[in-house]
């Protein structure tokens, strides 16, 4: 299992933590150097989310035609190009376009690896394999934390470093995921249409809720702790590292779902995610780190949960289910990132985080039901 899982963790870390979520880590310094407003920062964050959703739309087509292995490698290449573009960005427009390119890989990688897992691992290991690969986001975040200490004033070199590490991950995956990985089973084809979307409607609603609630945290949490809690660069880096380290525990999603069931696991995770936003607004230093722990665990747990949900919804074509789930997640994040930036500009950081916490809590009441869809 680990011959597939470990390179998978590294590529998820590259495409999510390095290429997408590190923008929030470097945002204070980027905003200062390029004179970005909070609204412009929200637009850049949204560009990455839009790229993510656009890639998810094409993921099933590309995987069916080119194979999951090739899409994994393509994901890494776009991450490298996007990060190098961000490193060289002289202004808001170039930064936005580079963020879009960097975000493409995160849309392709999860559906591609869900297909590789089904074709490479036995059924009893697939939930565990998928949820552990998903922890790559947290592993990457742990690595990005020290980068802000090493490159606090030179964020461009931070992106160059991430691009170099991304190249190493692409090389590893090219060696580990041979063409034989895809020989065991051919992905089934499903006709995309109204029935397919209706079967997955509860998965779609739940995923949008997760994306909406989490978007403000990924884009603005570090700005919050530096501007509202007056944390130093080192303190905010520790906050980021704690969030990433806690997220690794989200890898227990597969085992938790087996024990509690999908519905109870979803409601527990959504409540924890919403609570993490509210806790960040409390005027205590300890609350910052508690918030990081709660968010790290709950976000990785919830994204692992929708991977499991998507693969169970479409057992013959798991990449379809994961694409739909993460597409919906991306819609929530795209909308949420823009709303968060505008809300912060118009009100305040605490008001915006509390509003998003309440919005996330409302999605706890989403119905959890699987209507298994086969080719």
TrEMBL record:
The chain crosses the membrane at residues 43-63, 70-88, 94-118, 130-151, 157-179, 200-218, 238-258, 265-282, 288-308, 320-343, 349-366. Its main location: membrane. Keywords: Cell membrane, Membrane, Transmembrane, Transmembrane helix, Transport. It is found in: Cell membrane. Residues 5-372 form the Major facilitator superfamily (MFS) profile domain. It comes from the Bacteria. Pfam families: MFS_1. It is a multi-pass membrane protein. InterPro entries: MFS, MFS_dom, MFS_Efflux_Transporters, MFS_trans_sf. This is MFS transporter. It comes from Planomicrobium okeanokoites (Planococcus okeanokoites).
């Amino acid at each position: 299992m680990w011959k597939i899982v470990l390179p998978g963790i590294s590529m998820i870390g590259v495409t999510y933590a390095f290429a997408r979520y590190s923008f929030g880590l470097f945002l204070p310094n980027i905003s200062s150097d390029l004179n970005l407003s909070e609204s412009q920062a929200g637009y850049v964050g949204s560009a990455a989310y839009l790229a993510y959703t656009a890639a998810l739309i094409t993921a099933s087509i590309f995987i069916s035609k080119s194979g999951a292995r090739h899409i994994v490698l393509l994901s890494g290449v776009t991450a490298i190009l996007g990060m190098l573009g961000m490193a060289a960005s002289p202004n808001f427009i170039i930064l936005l376009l580079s963020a879009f390119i960097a975000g493409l890989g995160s849309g392709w990688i999860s559906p591609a690896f869900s297909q590789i897992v089904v074709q490479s691992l036995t059924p009893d290991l697939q939930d565990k394999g998928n949820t552990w690969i998903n922890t790559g986001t947290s592993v990457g975040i742990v690595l990005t934390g020290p980068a802000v200490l090493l490159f606090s004033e030179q964020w461009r070199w931070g992106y160059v470093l991430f691009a170099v590490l991304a190249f190493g991950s692409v090389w590893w995956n090219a060696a580990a995921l041979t063409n034989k990985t895809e020989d065991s089973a051919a992905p089934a084809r499903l006709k995309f249409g109204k029935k397919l979307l209706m079967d997955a409607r509860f998965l779609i609603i739940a995923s949008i809720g997760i994306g909406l609630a989490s978007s403000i945290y990924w884009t603005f949490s570090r700005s919050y702790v530096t501007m509202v809690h007056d944390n130093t660069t080192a303190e905010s880096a520790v906050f980021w590292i704690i969030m990433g380290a806690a997220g690794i525990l989200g890898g227990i999603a597969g085992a938790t779902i087996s024990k509690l069931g999908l519905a109870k696991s979803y409601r527990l995770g959504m409540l924890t995610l919403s609570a993490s936003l509210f806790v960040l607004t409390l005027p205590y230093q300890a609350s910052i780190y508690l918030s990081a722990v709660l968010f790290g665990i709950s976000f990785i747990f919830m994204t692992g949960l929708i991977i499991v949900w998507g693969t169970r919804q479409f057992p013959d074509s798991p990449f379809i289910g994961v694409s739909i789930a993460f597409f919906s997640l991306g819609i929530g994040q795209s909308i949420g990132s823009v709303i968060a930036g505008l809300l912060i500009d118009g009100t305040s950081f605490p008001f915006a985080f509390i509003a998003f916490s309440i919005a996330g809590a409302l999605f706890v009441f989403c119905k959890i039901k699987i209507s298994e869809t086969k080719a």
